[in-house]
Amino acid sequence: MTLALRCLLATVFLGSAVAKALDFDATAVFFSSLFGGAAGGAKSALAALILMEMALAGALVLWPGRRTYVAVLAGTAGFLVAGLLLWYVGVENCGCFGTRWATSPAVTVAKNLGLLLGALYLCRFAPPVGSLPGRVTGTGATLPLA
Questions:
Q1: In 3-139, where do the E strands start and end?
Q2: Quick one: which of 1, 4, 3, 5 has its CA closest to 116?
Q3: Residue 129 pLDDT > 70, yes or no?
Q4: Contact, 14 vs 53, CB < 8 A?
């Protein structure tokens, strides 16, 4: 279950990053108009957002573990808060997948809530990477006898 959940989360993060990257200029103009900033600042912020989403997707696939799951949890919580704010303001498109694939903030909030629950599950129930079957004690992993 954890592998499927990691793949789902990574796919959403990577899909979002790729959609923004393929429509970079239009998405930067959209973010600039959305937040009332300069176009250069919007491009820098958008590039940082794309890199963060790609890093989270890569970490989920290549370096699964508690630190990765906590980073995904924090990123997803941030996206959820942003979606809630955009929904409150009444924006038509949140820009989560660029400007070509318009997504309403209500759908974004539902998606991010599901992703947040998935990240919470990974933080709580995913076994440590490389752990052996058995029980874990304060001195290390022990295997059951017989």
A1: 135-137
A2: 5
A3: no
A4: yes
